[in-house]
């Protein structure tokens, strides 16, 4: 039997009607049985839903934002389908369900669970539109609710996969369908043991593709992006980027760990463990080779630059003239874990612990409130974390020439710098 292939299309590849038509064009000569298509929310839909959540949390009117989001999806449908097509009442129904959920009370205490109930509507809308359009173009595919396949714990917004249950679901529910038809499903979403919606972390659709691939013993995963493949730096920031034709799993994992946005950080591990190659290709130029990530006997050491924006530098200073001990670090990490805050950089001195974290809604104030009695705390917001792998000294100097450096540390192969414009 032919092994399954997984194709994942991100938000940019389904951002408007032209993009959806291009997706269908890519699939026309590739689509067959034992094919799984994973799609993200359309364009910036997730951001718009987060804005609606933020307004709801502040008890402000979000009806205009909701109307704009609905019109965005309906306008795409108007370009893709005739007026009498079944997709239009289906979109209406999704927004009725969304407003029903938004009528429930929200607070800081239940925000993460509330977030997961709301945010997945982006993927549900997108997958339904794409599935209906493929069928309208005589590319018959089955729609699958990913929440029926991806089993997780109840760690809302950062749910951990129950691999055993997920594999069983994929083998018993998904595999029989794939023997007959290609299947289209959603990235990013799952469900907990009580059937409540969960999400796998922001930009988690890549991870969904890897989960399905590992659970189905797939032949490969292909992620379709608006870039030629994996580059050594973000082309939106740097003009002189270099394309990697191939990468070792370890190299790719290291890049994603430090924040390279081309692949979700959790994607590599399940694929590497199963020996499933990952291809990163351009939906703009689909015939180009892109990047292949797999086992390499000898990995290269090209300079790679990763910039993470919206970073916060928080420094904890002991207040009783004592030196930093393990208990101080444990105290801080206990709160970071409770708040689901990931440390992007850590540095300790005799009396200070400094951490760099992503900016997240009201998480910083909660962290400060919990630890203000144990430490003197200072913080800076709106920073950038620059990570350079295999740094060239001259290039590194250029990268910080216009910036104030707040924190810096280096190992043999990695340099990390917290910076802000002068």
TrEMBL record:
Keyword Magnesium assigned: no
NCBIfam families from the UniProt entry: asp_kinases
Organism: Algoriphagus yeomjeoni
One cellular component (GO) term of this entry: cytosol
Catalytic activity, EC: 2.7.2.4
GO molecular function annotations of the record: aspartate kinase activity; ATP binding
Endpoints of the signal sequence: none
Segments forming domain Aspartate/glutamate/uridylate kinase: 3-282
Pfam families in the cross-refs: AA_kinase (PF00696)
Family (UniProt): Belongs to the aspartokinase family.
Keywords, sorted A to Z: Amino-acid biosynthesis, ATP-binding, Kinase, Nucleotide-binding, Transferase
Reaction(s) catalysed by this chain's protein: L-aspartate + ATP = 4-phospho-L-aspartate + ADP
The protein's name in its UniProt record: Aspartokinase
């Amino acid at each position: 039997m032919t092994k399954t292939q997984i194709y994942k299309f991100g938000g940019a590849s389904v951002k408007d009607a032209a993009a959806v038509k291009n997706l269908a064009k890519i699939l026309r000569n590739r689509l067959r049985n034992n094919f799984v298509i994973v799609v993200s929310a359309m364009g910036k839909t997730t951001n718009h839903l987060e804005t609606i959540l933020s307004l709801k949390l502040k008890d402000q009117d979000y009806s205009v934002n909701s109307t704009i989001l609905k019109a965005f999806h309906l306008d795409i449908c108007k370009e893709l389908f005739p007026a009498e097509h079944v997709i239009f009442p289906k979109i209406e129904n999704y927004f009725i369900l969304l407003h029903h959920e938004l009528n429930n009370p929200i607070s800081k205490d239940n925000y993460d669970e509330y977030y997961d109930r709301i945010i997945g509507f982006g993927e549900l809308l997108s997958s339904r539109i794409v599935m209906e359009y493929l069928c309208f173009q005589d590319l018959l595919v089955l729609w699958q609710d990913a929440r029926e396949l991806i089993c997780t714990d109840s760690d809302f917004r950062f749910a951990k996969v129950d691999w055993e249950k997920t594999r069983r679901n994929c083998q018993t529910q998904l595999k029989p369908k794939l023997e007959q038809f290609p299947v289209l499903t959603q990235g990013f979403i799952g469900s907990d043991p009580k059937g409540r919606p969960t999400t796998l972390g922001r930009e988690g659709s890549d991870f969904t593709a890897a989960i399905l691939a590992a659970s189905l013993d797939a032949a490969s995963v292909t992620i379709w992006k608006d870039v030629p493949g994996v580059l050594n730096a973000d082309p939106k920031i740097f003009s002189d980027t270099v394309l990697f034709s191939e990468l070792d799993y370890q190299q790719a994992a290291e890049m994603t760990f430090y924040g390279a946005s081309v692949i979700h950080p959790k994607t590599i591990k399940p694929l590497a463990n199963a020996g499933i190659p990952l291809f990163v290709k351009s939906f703009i130029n689909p015939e180009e080779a892109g990047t292949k990530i797999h086992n390499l006997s000898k990995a290269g050491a090209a300079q790679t630059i990763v910039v993470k924006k919206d970073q916060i530098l928080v420094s904890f200073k002991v207040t009783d003239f004592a030196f930093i001990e393990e208990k101080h670090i444990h105290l801080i990490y206990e709160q970071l874990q409770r708040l689901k805050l990931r440390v992007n950089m850590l540095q300790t001195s005799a009396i200070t612990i400094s951490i760099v974290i992503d900016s997240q809604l009201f998480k910083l104030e909660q962290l400060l409130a919990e630890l203000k009695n144990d430490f003197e705390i200072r913080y800076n917001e709106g920073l950038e974390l620059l990570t350079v792998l295999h740094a060239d000294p001259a290039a590194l100097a250029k990268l910080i020439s216009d910036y104030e450096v707040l924190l810096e540390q280096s190992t043999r192969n990695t340099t990390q710098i917290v910076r802000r414009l002068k």
